[in-house]
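Researcher: Next sequence.
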Amino acid sequence: MRIDKFLWSIRFYKTRSIAAEEIKKNRVSIGTSAVKSSKEVKEGDVIKIRKNQIDYKIKVIQIPKSRIGAKLVPLHIQDVTDKEQYELLKVRKMSQDYYRNKGEGRPTKKDRREMDEYVGNDIASDFTDWDDFFGETDDETEEGED
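Model: Next structure:
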């Protein structure tokens, strides 16, 4: 089976074309050599994949006939990625959460609606008429014109 089709069928990439693009960008290799999309995958091959700044390594156990369900993936591949790579991913994820804590920064749509409801109810209940708010009435304006 072609490597682009294999990576798609084991659900490593969402589409076959994305898999082919990643192979073209030399982010996929078998052993130490970069491969083309047409490279045939055999059982026992170790495939190195660079995705999300992590170097994944998978060993081919069995080649599927077509795209398989997520629960069946462990029957076809074995993950031999270094634990250090997963720790790097964990550290990067934690560092992204660091700079913006929940509730800081720009308000969400829900926050804005709550603020509008809070502010809107106070103004609407206190001042129903702008003329009353500014202290003007129709009688005063008519008298001033005479």
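Model: The CA atoms of residues 54 and 89 lie 7 Å apart. The two ends are 96 Å apart (CA to CA).
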